[in-house]
Amino acid sequence: MTALRSILLFALAAVAEIGGAWLVWQGVREHRGWVWIGAGVIALGFYGFVATLQPDADFGRILAAYGGVFVAGSLAWGMVLDGYRPDRWDITGASICLLGVAVIMYAPRMS
User: Which residue of 16, 24, 73, 84 has the lowest C-beta tally within 10 Å?
Assistant: First the structure.
């Protein structure tokens, strides 16, 4: 149950951070305005809060592992919302990142 909770929190964090960055991007680069930018800033703040809810108490471990989730999530976000089509190297790299997440977060540890 702890691993499932952790995975769900990583997914929620990814939506908040990647979504927030995308909203800021849309506001600035696509000239959609301050409302989009403001919504992005709020989402990015929410991401920071969600990260604190992880069951593991080690900040460095959580943020390091989340980096892999961010890589894979960013490619997925681009596919769904921007029509980006990753090539085999994008997919290979994202898979390696997710393997790293699994090792960092869920490998058995000696106490």
Answer: 84
Tokens of 64: 């390091």
- Which residue, among 101, 79, 102, has the nearest Cα to 90 in the 3D structure? 79
Task: Answer for the pair 38, 23: CB distance below 8 angstroms, yes or no.
Answer: no
Residue with tokens 């927030």: 20
In the block, residue with structure tokens 């849309």: 26
Q: What does the pLDDT average to over 46-73?
A: 94
The DSSP call for residue 56 is S
Cα separation, 50 vs 9, in Å, equals: 7
How big is the CA angle at 62 (ends 108 and 8), to the nearest 5 degrees? 85
Structure tokens at 69: 């989730």
Tokens standing for residue 88: 């085999």
CA dist., res. 1 & res. 17, Å (int): 24
Q: Give per-residue pLDDT as tens, 13-44.
A: 999 999 999 999 999 999 999 999 999 999 99
Dist CA 8 CA 32 (whole Å): 31
